[in-house]
Specification:
Layout (H helix, E strand, L loop, with lengths): L25 H4 L5 E6 L9 E2 L19 E6 L30 H4 L3 E7 L13 H17 L13 E6 L2 H12 L10 H4 L1 E7 L8 H16 L7 H4 L6 H13 L9 E6 L3 E2 L1 H17 L9 H16 L3 E2 L4 H4 L5 E5 L15 H15 L1 H17 L1
Parallel strand pairs: 1-2, 3-4, 3-5, 5-6, 6-7, 7-10
Antiparallel strand pairs: 1-4, 8-9
Length: 394
Amino acid sequence: MESKGAPIVERHDAQPYDIPQGPESWCAKQGGRSELVQLYPMPEDSEGIRSFHCPPRDTACQLPGRCEAVVDIIAIHGLGTTHASYIWKQSSEEPEGRNWLQDPEMLPAAIPNSRIFTYEWNSGFDQNATIEKMKDHADELLRQLHKLRTATDSTGPDGESRPIVFIAACFGGLLLLKAFSRAVAEDNRPSYSLIPLQTAGAIFMGTPFSGSHSILYETCNLRMRIGEHLGKDTSQYLVSLLKSDSPELEEIVQNFRQLNSRPEFDFPVCCVYETRDADYSTSMGKVRKNLQRKMRERRGWRFGQNDRVLNKLWKELQDTMESDLSMMVVNCQSATLPEHEKLALDVKHGNLIRFPGADDSSFRKIAALVEKMAGQASEVLRRKQIQLDSEAST
């Protein structure tokens, strides 16, 4: 329910919790590959790093390719993202709009001596899904980070020692936690341990450390089943981690919390959470429209004569649409870790990572947080090294 008091004015037209539903995912177009995409400054032809092609109005494309970067900022998107480059914009389904990670008046203005990347990975579940597990996704993130930071690029040879600040959106935070654990795992490459060692801060934005609202799990599961019967490549695996009683979810979070006592993981963490309910009926309305169109076509189904199955799914979807789909997607208790800083934004879940402009109050809070972590980065890394040296000498 919305809070009482002054009327609520929507800041922009982003969905309250939008798991985008494009016709083809970014990962599908890239052959399922995951990769880091540099948003700022616009890269020269760096070794193995893909340039980002902005829409014409995106003036960040005009920034110089060279800069003396003192920090790398890595943003990781969440579940079911089909338009990876749009998810950080004020409307996730439109190529136009301000991307606060790239707009020259937004995050680049706050931390101009940085490199800013998005990590684009296949988080699909109801279409173009992968069979990979969280371990596989985490190892690929580490591989891409290692590749980026050891490449010869326009910022000089200090890539491996440059501090990192992570910004993880919702489910992307679980991927980051898993990557931290895998970085120091005995069965992984020793060079990956440099990733947490050089991490100067991490911001988790609506990450469901103890699961999401049950309605979100149920609607995502329904979408997955509909996709399966329409012949899509689907997977229930990632969706299952939204459940509050998921053993793997608990293991991912507990493993990270146990690492907090190690010097490599002595860096500031802030957990950001929403304070407004989101209405998921708009997103489910799109699912209903797509299913209705497929039912009219009556062709292309994986299991042949399955009208009865689709009719059952249609009825279940109709019943879902008639229920109350407003919810606090990830409440404060689930989105925060007791031992770390927390920050409330007066927005719905989907707007935790979307800001209309540099004057937006939520953006100013996040920009100040990133700026603070970047400003303290050298000291954080120095403190870690002192602790490691002290342990080595005893």
